[in-house]
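Dissemination and training. As part of the outreach component of the grant, students in the summer workshop were shown how a complex can be specified as a set of sequence lines and then modelled as a single object. The example used during the hands-on session is reproduced here so that future cohorts can follow it. Participants entered these lines:
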Amino acid sequence: MTASAAETLFETHKAQLDGALSAIRSRGYWSAFPESPSKRVYGETAAADGLAAFEAMKGAPFELSGHPGAGMRVGGEVSPYGPALGVSYPAATVDAVLAAATAALPAWRDAGVKARTGVCLEILKRINAQSFTFAHTVMHTTGQSFVMAFQAGGPHAQDRGLEAIAYAYDAMAATPEHVRWEKPQGKNPPLVIDKYFKTVPRGVAAVIGVSTFPTWNGFPGLFASLVTGNPVVVKPHPAAILPLALTVRIARGVLAEAGFDPNLVTLLVDDADDPIAKDLCTRPEVRIVDFTGGGAFGNWLEENCPQAQVYTEKSGVNAVVIDDFADLKGMARNLSYTFSLYSGQMCTTPQNVFIPKSGIKTADGVMSFDAVAAALAASVDKFLSDPDRAFAVLGAIQSKATLDRVEKAAALGRTVRRSAALTHPDFPDAVVRTPAMIALDAEADRETYGAECFGPVTFLIATEDTGDSLARLRETVAEGGAITAALYADDAAVIERARAVCEEVGVALSVNLTGGLFVNQSAAFSDFHATGANPAANAALTDAAFVANRFRVIETRIPVDEEPAETAA
Amino acid sequence: MTASAAETLFETHKAQLDGALSAIRSRGYWSAFPESPSKRVYGETAAADGLAAFEAMKGAPFELSGHPGAGMRVGGEVSPYGPALGVSYPAATVDAVLAAATAALPAWRDAGVKARTGVCLEILKRINAQSFTFAHTVMHTTGQSFVMAFQAGGPHAQDRGLEAIAYAYDAMAATPEHVRWEKPQGKNPPLVIDKYFKTVPRGVAAVIGVSTFPTWNGFPGLFASLVTGNPVVVKPHPAAILPLALTVRIARGVLAEAGFDPNLVTLLVDDADDPIAKDLCTRPEVRIVDFTGGGAFGNWLEENCPQAQVYTEKSGVNAVVIDDFADLKGMARNLSYTFSLYSGQMCTTPQNVFIPKSGIKTADGVMSFDAVAAALAASVDKFLSDPDRAFAVLGAIQSKATLDRVEKAAALGRTVRRSAALTHPDFPDAVVRTPAMIALDAEADRETYGAECFGPVTFLIATEDTGDSLARLRETVAEGGAITAALYADDAAVIERARAVCEEVGVALSVNLTGGLFVNQSAAFSDFHATGANPAANAALTDAAFVANRFRVIETRIPVDEEPAETAA
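and obtained this result:
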C-alpha cells in the first residue's frame, strides 16, 4: 500500500471523521464506537473470541515483529484478580527506540495529513474490532470489572482517541496546503505569489501510561501525536502493559500494511525497580510527552523537560459540596454508585464531601451532619448489598499502595462506614474492598483531606456552613488540584456561587446529579476531562490546546509573476 | 457603557472580524488597515495632526490616568535620528501592576467572549486612527524611516493584532457556550443534561517589548492575551517605550469607556541599568509571557518561568542559498533592497549567503564566486546611489551595539563592500550606515557566520557546492535558528531539495524572489512569521497554537431530567 493508497483509508473513514468533527463543535451526544458489549453489535463470537485471544496471550511471549531491541524479554504483570499474567515483552533500550523512531519520521511526515489521518482511523477501527480482547487485558491489569473494562477500556477509550484525531485533523486542515496570494499594486500588475503550507511534526513523542486506565488515558496523546506526524514511543505502567502492547501491535500492523515503517509506534517496557521514563522524557529527540499518573512525577516532568511539550494528568482532591437539598435519597443513591465505581480508583472520584456541621434542610426536614453521613453510608451499604452489582461495580484493588491506604483509613478520623473485604465468586484471590467513609473536621483535619488519598476512601468533612464548604473547595483545589467537583443545592443563588468558585479555581462542576449521570463519568465529544486550569492537570482531554502544539507549519513562497520590480520601495 | 453595551462594539466591528476569520482560513491576500499613508485614506489633516501630537508628547510627562504607582517618573529614550525624546512615564512597581491587574481580572473574564472581542477591536480601530502619531513614535525609537515606521509600526502591526484577535476568537467560539446533551438509554427515557462551557483566562499576561518593532511584535501577544481574558502588563524595551505607552493609553481609554477597569492594561517601564523583566516574568501571578528580543534572555525565559506559557521570538541566522540562476540581475536587485531595508535590523533579514566557491551558471555564463559577490555589492551600491531612496530605506541604526558590530565587521573576513556613514539631510545626528558585505569561507569561518551578527552586515560564504550550501543552512539553522531562508535556483530538483531541508529544519523558504516581494516581508493573514520549529522562536505569529493555551474551558453540567436512576450500572 502506498501513501496515496493510505489516503484511501481516509476516504473509507471519512464519514466517521466528519461525525467526530461535527460533534467536537456541537459537543452534543455522539459516539462512534458502541459501548454495549452486545452480540448484535460486535457479533455472535466476539465475546468468546476475545476471551480466547486473551487466554492465548497469557503465559507467553508477546510478539512484536520487527521491533527494535528484540532478544531479552521483560514484564511481570499480576492481575488484581489474582493470577500472574506471565506475559513477556521485547526489552528495548531508549537508544534503540529513539533511533528507530527518528528514522521512521520523514516518510510519515511527508505522507501528508490525509494519509496519516486515514491510517490512524484504521488503527482505531481494528482496535474496536478487538474490544473484547482489550476488555480482558484491561480487567486483568487495572482491576476494573469486566463491563467497565469493556466500556472504559474499549469503546470509550476509542471515542477519546477519535476525538483527539478529530481535533488534530481540524487544526491541521485549518491552514490550506496551497494558496495563490495576489496583492494589488495600484496601477501596476498585482504581486502574485504561490504559497505552500506543510504541517511538520515536533519530533518523537512519548506516552507514559497509567495503571488504572491505560487505554482511555493513553489513546488521546498517542493518536494526537501520531496523526500530527510524530513517531510515538509507548512506555506503559509496569502493572498495565498488555493493553498498550496490544495497541502498539495493532498500530504497527496497520502502519506496515499501509507501507510505513512500523517503528513509528514502539513499546518501551520497564519495571518498577528500574524505571526508564526520566531517561526517555529528557532525551533531546523527545519533543512531546503525554503523562497520566501521580502528581510528584507529573510535576517533575513539567519542570525537567524544557525540550518537550509536556501534557500531564495528575492527581487531585475532587470535592462535593452539599447544601440544603430536598432529594436526599436521590443524592445518596447517586453518590453511592459514584463512591463504589471501580473502588474509587478513578481520577474523577470525589474524595472530599463538605457538609455543614449544622446539617442541611431536606424534604424530610433538617438532617444533622451525622444523619447526612449515615444516609450516605447506608446508601452505599444498600447499593452493595446485591453481590452481583457489587462485584460488577467495585472491581478489584489495583495496587498494594491503594490497599494500604484503605486499610489505614480508619486511623484518619471517625469511621462512618467501615471498608470490608469481599470474596469474589469467580476470582478468590481478587483484592476487593468496599469504600471506607471517614468523618473529618474542616479545620482540624485540613492536612488529611488536603492531600490525595487515592482509592475507596471518602472523607465527610464538617464545615461551618456552605460558604465555608466553598472556601474549602477553592483552597484545596487551588493547592492540590481537582478533575471534578459536584454540588447538591436547591438554592439557585448557591448554585451560581459554586459555579463562580469553580470557574475561578478552574474545575468542572456537576450540579444536583440524582439520576443516571455520575460525576466521575466524562463523555468523549462532549465533556472536557480535566481543565488544565488547576494543579491536577496542565491540559484537557481533548481540546484545541491539546493538539495545536504537536505540529508546526512550514511555508514555502514562490512568485508566479517574476516581473522585475521597478519600484522596490 | 455596560458589558452588554460592550457587546455592541462586537456588532460594530463584526464585518471586520468576519473578514479576518475568512482570511486566516484562506490565507490569501487580505488587510483590514490600509498601508498607504494617503490623505484619501487617513484624511487631509491626519499627517499634520500626527506630527503635532508627536511633537506635543516630546519633552513632557506621558499621562496615564489612574495608572498604579504614579508619582515617580522614569524613561530616557533617545531618537536614533538624534534628539532625546524627553518623555517621562509613571514609575510603577511589579507589585503594584500585578495587584491592579489581578483585581481587574474577574469582571473582564465574566464579560464574555463577545464583549472582550468588541473592546479589543475598538482599541485597534482607535490605534489605526492615530497611525501617523504611531509612525513618528516608532520612527524616533526604532530608527525606521518614516514610511516604514508608518506601515510596519502602524497598519501592518494593526493587521497582526487583528489576526491574533481572529485566531483567539475562533478558538474560543469553537466551543459552544451551552448545549443540551441527550444520550439515548434504550427503552428508558434519554439522559438529558444541560452543559455550559465558559472560557476563563490563565492569569496575568506579560508582554516584553523589543526595540526594533515594538508594535508589530508586541500587538499579537497583547491582543491574544487580552481578548482571551488575561490582564496585560506591557514592559517595553527601555529604548522604545513611547509606541507601547501610546498603545496602553488608548487601550485603557477604551476599557474605561466600556465600563471595565483600565488596569486590565498597564505599563511597566524600566531602564537598561535596572531591568525588571525577570522579576515580572517569574511572579506566580504571571501565567503568560510574550517576548521578542535576543536569544540569551529568550532562552532564559523559556527555562525559568515554569508557571507561565512563554512565547518567544528571538535571534537567528537567516540564510540565502544561491545555485545556478539565470536572472542574476533580478536576484541582485531584489537582494539589494532586502539587505538595505532598515539597515538589516529586521529579524527577517538574511545574514548568511551561501554561494558555491566554483561559481554559478547565469544567463551571462558562469560567474565566479567573486563575480557573484561583486554583482551583489554593485547592486547595493546602485540601489543606494539615489539618496532619497537610500534614506527612505536604510533608516537609522537603532543601538550602539549594532553600530559597533557594523564598524567591526571588516575584521571578520574579506571586505566585498565597505559600510559607509551617510549624513541624513533632515537629521544631521542620525546614525546612518550602509551594509557591510564580508566574504567568508564555509569551513574556516564556521564560528563567525554561525552566530548572529545583527545589523547591516551580510556574509557571502564560499561553499563546496549547493549540496554543501544546503548542509550549512541546515546546520546553522538547527543550532542558531532562523526566521527566513531564501533560495535562488533554476533547477526544480534543487528547489525540491531546499524545500525538504527547510521543512526538516523548520524554517520558511522563499524561492527565486526577483520582483516586488522580499524575503524579509511577512504579511499578516497569509505568512506565518517564524515557525516555532527551530531555535529562533518557540511560536509563530499567528496560528492556533499561539492562542490555544491562553485560556481554558470550564464546564458546568446540570441534569434537565432528574428522574431517579433505576439502573445505575
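The longest helix of chain B spans residues 155-173. Students were then asked to discuss how this feature might be tested experimentally.
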